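During the reporting period the student researcher (J.K.) took over the structure-prediction task from the postdoctoral fellow and processed the backlog of single-chain submissions. One of the processed entries is reproduced below for the supervisory committee.
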Amino acid sequence: MKPLYNYFGLNTMPNLTLKNIPDELYDCLKEAANQHHRSINSELIACLEKAFMPIRWTSEQHLANAQTLRNRVKAKKISIKEIQEFKNQGRP
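J.K. obtained the following structure tokens:
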């Protein structure tokens, strides 16, 4: 059985040590951490979460997001006829 608390009463969390990180990759991580006002460790955790635990949106959330984006765009609505005309332009 895995203990829930260590000697100091804190939750135990796994540790990870990275070795032989290429300088260019480390510099990118450091720059991203600075831009997001995070430590390098926190930035790396955020990157891992984004890669392995992506947000799962429901279809309702997708539709709401699409509607929000549509409302931001101040463009003339195009009819089906206009779309067909645009598609046919330049075709022999």
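The committee noted the following: Residues 59-72 form the longest helix (14 residues).
J.K. will present the remaining backlog at the next meeting.
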